[in-house]
Amino acid sequence: MRRVAAALVWTSAISASVFGCSERRALSVGEPVVGPLLGGPFGAGALAPAALASPGPALPPRRAAFGFGLMGVSFESGALPPAALATLEPALAGPLAGADAAPIPGLVDDKGACPTGMALVDGESCSEVEHTCLKKMEDDPARRCLEFKPGADVCVAPEGHLRFCMDRYEWPGTPGAQPRVLVDYFEAEKQCKSVGKRMCKEDEFYLACEGPEHWPYAWGHSRHPSSCNIDRPYLMVDWVKWAKGGQAMVEEAKRLDQALPIGASKCWSQYGIHDIAGNVDEWTTARPGRELQGSLNGGYWGPVQNACRYVTTVHGPEFLFYQIGFRCCADAKA
Questions:
Q1: In what helix (H) or strand (E) does residue 297 lie, and over which residues does it extend?
Q2: Which of 64, 191, 286, 294 has the highest Cβ tally under 10 A?
Q3: Displacement of CA 7 from its chain's centroid (Å)
Q4: What is the pTM of this model?
Q5: So what's the pLDDT on residue 284?
Q6: What pLDDT, in 10s, does the model give residues 61-113?
Q7: Which residues contact 83 (CB under 8 A, 6 or more apart)?
Q8: Residue 149 domain-assigned?
């Protein structure tokens, strides 16, 4: 009972901090939107069957309580009704077969600058980008913009040149496998180091997603149609099962899963980064000056913004959930 009471008190505290301090605001027609957009705890992805089947230590009870408290501020009303979803849902491919045989998009020929499975991202970084929303989604708690004005993307705070390598796919990077989720920042960092890579930086994520022209979405200016796995209805978590931890939490995570297998969509950024928006939310190393070590970028399959500048900064690095995954970066060879 003490743990439940503490979780409820913690929920109230985090609710106040998220909704009282968020920099996200409603988008008016014709109103410039300056990024990055700060999100609430509506972060990312889904638990993969493959990941669930793999052996690993059971989560300690404090982590179950941690997730219970935090997700008490999640919303459900942002989900589209089934009839509307059917008209907007992207045309998604089935499970990927022979993905490596198909041409992989990307602006830059890395000429050996990046390891296999990574894409070279080479362009001008921008701390803040201004976009103009022409049409917003009505009565939407997530404040999604349906259409931005093409050609009105303005870098209002240039930061200089970035050149780095980024995984084309979400971890573990195997086409046809499910993306790894239920992972905190420290575990993501450990996995990247284990293969000679590092965590991606928040500003690297922005450039890789929006491309050299700083598009609001990885695929352009109109939210729909999109080939990315976005705008699926939010499913309510059974917190009684989740708080039990262990196998009960694993089974609940399976039920909530709406992530697609790696490579199953046709969602690519201009730099050739797959599912950098939607599917699973991704850990990055937060910008200098942020209070927390990690940020969450890109959004997930649910009813969230999924804009390139969408970022969640309210979770500590120990936070993990059924929607949160990652990919890795590396320094490019000269």
A1: strand 294-297
A2: 294
A3: 25
A4: 0.73
A5: 98
A6: 323 223 322 332 222 223 333 343 333 333 333 333 333 334 567 887 778 99
A7: none
A8: no
Range of the domain at 280: 2-24+35-93+101-126+159-331
Q: If you write DSSP's letter for every residue of 184-235 in order, what string do you get?
A: -HHHHHHHHHHTT-EEPBHHHHHHHHHTTTT-SBTTBSBSSS-SSS--PPPP
The CATH number assigned to the domain holding 235 equals 3.90.1580
CA distance 184 to 93: 29
Q: CA geometry: angle at 39 spanning 33 and 43, to 5°?
A: 135
**For residues 145 and 137, what is the distance between their CA atoms, to the nearest angstrom?**
6
Residue 146 lies in a domain: no
| Residue 107 confidence (pLDDT) | 80
What pLDDT, in 10s, does the model give residues 139-172? Answer: 999 999 999 999 999 999 999 999 999 999 999 9
Encoded amino acid at 211, one letter? G
